[in-house]
Amino acid sequence: MIKADHYLKSAxxxxxxxxxxxxxxxxxxxxxxxxxxxxAEMGEAGAGLIEGAPDVHTFPLALEGEQxxxxxxxxxxxxxxxxxxTWGVLLAHTLQGMLVAEHGRRSVSREALExxxxxxxxxxxxTDLNESLKPAAVVAAxxxxxxxxxxxxxFGAVFxxxxxxxxxxxxxxxxxxxxxxxxxxxxxxxxxVTRETGDIVNDxxxxxxxxxxxxxxxxxxxxxxxxxxERLGLLALASCRTESFSAADLKRAQTLCSVAxxxxxxxxxxxxEQKMFQSFVRVIAxxxxxxxxxxxxxxxxxxxxAMMIAQTAHQVDSGPFAxxxxxxxxxxxxxxxxMLHDCGKVVTPEWIVDKAAKLDRIENRIHLVALRFxxxxxxxxxxxxxxxxxxxxxxxxxxxxxESLHQLDDDFAFLEKCNxxxxxxxxxxxxxxxxxxxxxWTDARGEPQPLLTENEVFNLSIQRGTLNPEERKIIxxxxxxxxxxxxxIAFPGSLxxxxxxxxxxxxxxxxxxxxxxxxxxQLSIPARxxxxxxxxxxxxxxxxxxxxxxxxxxxxxxxxRMKLDNHIDGDLFDLFLSERIYLAYAQKQLVASQIDDxxxxxxxxxxxx
Length: 609
Known about the structure:
There is one protein chain. A hairpin with a 2-residue loop joins strand 8 (219-227) and strand 9 (230-239). The longest helix is centred in the N-terminal third of the chain and has 50 residues, at 81-130. Strands 6-5-9-8-7 form a 5-stranded antiparallel β-sheet, sandwiched between helices. Strands 2-1-4-3 form a 4-stranded antiparallel β-sheet, with helices on one face. Strands 10-11 form a two-stranded antiparallel ribbon. By secondary structure, the protein is α+β, with helices and mostly antiparallel strands. The protein has helices spanning 10-20, 81-130, 135-144, 176-184, 187-192, 247-290, 298-315, 328-340, 350-353, 366-389, 394-420, 427-438, 454-460, 469-487, 498-503, 525-540, 552-564, 570-578, 581-589, 600-608, and strands spanning 29-34, 37-43, 56-63, 66-74, 155-162, 165-172, 199-201, 219-227, 230-239, 440-442, 448-450. The chain is 52% helix and 12% strand.
């Protein structure tokens, strides 16, 4: 029913009555009625004008064949009825024209508003479909447009083409998964997925092709998702009622499916590129680990520890990391950075990476030293026989020989111990090494040579570890190479922090780390997390050449000293302990002999106080 009571304003109607009243017989009364509203009245006895009264002339006003009101006239006695009828028709015609014009204007405005609303909804839908680069999110956004938005669909589903079949990706509606699973096995579905265009079937029971194919639905609307000529999937909307879908529903669905197909293809391409990139990162990490048998698995284990720390920091709701948020971009960046943190080692010589002893290079040169000592032992034996031949007492010669062998054995054992790099080499030790080096042996050409070369003395005199200063500089330069290599990769904006995260694993909170000497406030939290993960993995790794695998208690004690020395982030280390991250990792990756009891109370006591 058309409500026209507000179509004509009272002031305008009064003005029309004022213009007509002088032309009508005196004593006439007139009124305009629209619906239940008396819009205007004028003349005598206006209040008593009622449609249908014996002395009231009624002139109907209609819109689209429906009466919406009337012009009412009451003439005085002895009036000229023909004249009144003429003027009544003329006045009603004027009112009718204004009603039609106003109705048209309002209809156009309403259609324009509806079109605007439809465009706004479509624009929002397009934005929702295109704002995500995840296929699942695109599918969810498409189904959202038909679920609970005054549509005719009781059920909806999107099937994506996968491995020569269609997989039910998502759906809505009561028990929709079961209903569409049964529907997917029907001949109707098999026919739909082969069609190039969509369609509507508003009464499946009356369909010559598909009657009885599904008991769950009465009406269907379906459309293929096609982008750049590639069939990506299928949208299926269903209703429990017949005659549920209109041509307008199909048109709107076609528009949305067109946008969704493009967004879906972009999301799938992006996902494929991400998968390829992550595979490439894993290949690089594997290559770094494979460079040395002693670092195998390091670039795989460090990300695991780092992400355990990050996830724990994200979950705590109090303390220094209450505001730390691990969003998807940071998660991806951290994982990639942790895998690539040692990528600079691809240019580090293997003999330095694998240097298990101080005289290691291509091979362990302690064996060459051993040969020289063997030459000296034979020389001692020759000296013994020569002395006896020259008349020296055999007992005295034997005693001197035994004393010489004992000294040689003692000196070589000392050098072997120094070569291991497991103990601190003092100034006294260096003096003894230099004294041993001054002893001479005769080479194959009969020329005397020092027992140790200058380079051998230099390396055996290393105070801690197995690397001399030049070799340690080469090792430390891997961090510079990491920065240089990662800086050349055009990471997208979401991964722009990878280089910073990866480059900080050898920096220190006090600024005495390398390669850039950054302090704690210059390092991001993810970079500090990777640093702790790198240290803990190195301390507990089962395959380091210079020591046996460390126990948990030993590793935690070493890291606690690093915390006190302001080497690592103390708050992160406390979180690492208090949340038992170290133990969770150890139970998955370490052997039983490494997992001993750790009294974390004594490490956290000061913090608790």
